[in-house]
UniProtKB/TrEMBL annotation:
Pfam families: Radical_SAM. One of its GO terms (molecular function) is 4 iron, 4 sulfur cluster binding. Belongs to the anaerobic coproporphyrinogen-III oxidase family. HemW subfamily. This is Oxygen-independent coproporphyrinogen III oxidase. Residues 16-250 form the Radical SAM core domain. One of its GO terms (biological process) is porphyrin-containing compound biosynthetic process.
Amino acid sequence: MKPFLDMESVRAILEGRGGYPVSVYVHVPFCARRCRYCDFFSVAGAGERVMEGYVERVLEVLEQMFVLLRPSEIPTVYVGGGTPNVLPLRLWERLLTGVRERVRVWGRPVEWTVEVNPEWVDEEKVRVLGEVGVTRVSLGVQGLDEGFLRLMGRGAGRREVERAVEVLAGWGGRVSVDLLAGRPRGMSGDVVRELEEVRGWGVGHVSVYGLTVEEGTVLGAMVRRGEVVMPGEEELAGEWEAICRWFGERGFVRYEVSNFALPGEECLHNLRYWRLEPYLGVGPSAVSTLPGKEGPVRVRQVRDVGRFVAEGGVWEEVEVIGPQAFLLEWFMMGLRTREGVEGERFRRVWGVGVEEVLGEVGRRWCGWGVAEMGESGVRLSEHGLDILDSLLKDIAILIWEKQIGKPLWP
Ligand code: SF4
């Protein structure tokens, strides 16, 4: 069994490297039931006592980590899951007020997002969002076709979704919607038609994720048994093209592989994550990437709700990320976004220019028309984003052959 790290061990790795802006993610690991396709870490059917223990622990760890890191500011906060709003009102209020109290010590975040599932949205919980200063809600719709939602084991049907949209309309903050594309064959739901409906709700940000069949999920077993047939590559490419066209014609920018926003509606928290800005994740299974004494460090909190509740500050993985691996990640994350890898920051952190690192590979991409590269950095075209994975293979080989110095991060 792997040794677990306690607060003292994490302190020893991170101490003395604080004083920079840190984004905060709080993982709420509870769901009413497990959707058939999902492999995120969450538990279904937890009782109120466990949830209460979790809320107190999360607030405690958050406070301890802030004291350790002494952030210069907390620009963004994201409370995700799981299903954060499955918490009963009393605990929902306690969690969000507790997060606010602890964050506000370090200033007011520019953006605070909370993920919610439609069937657990109600007026009282939405009132709390307004009171604590949440600025953005991410609504997990996933689809509007009843057959598809049922097949996926989602807790909300069309009626619950419409009701949630109605309640959130009176709230005044920004709303983002998640949808799933690449649905099994034979589903009557059409993502583009659903987008028309979503647009009618006045939403300025939509994330469209491709449904993936993960090992160990119910959907995985259904596909293996032939009960569900997934679409082929050509169908997927055709659907994706139609989705991108739909957004483009309505002024939405594809600012990341799966994320579309009207100008000014982008999720700042996720942008900071893709830019590899320091990031603190608290709650079972949550990951942090933070500057440590030996270089960038990644730590993951224990993937066990019971243990987290019993012990709080307990981590199960720690990794000092070597310069090559971190540089590769820098490109993997940055190139997912429309803004790409920004040149000036790259030079400051890595001591060399993007062009010097990418060299022939970057020039080849530019020749193919899938990227633009210059002093200001490197960014992919729309088509480049579609073939991101194959482009990243070129970079991986290139980076592993290079001598890279320690990054001056953040
Ligand atoms: S609600 Fe979200 S986190 Fe929970 S099982 Fe469904 S997809 Fe996974």
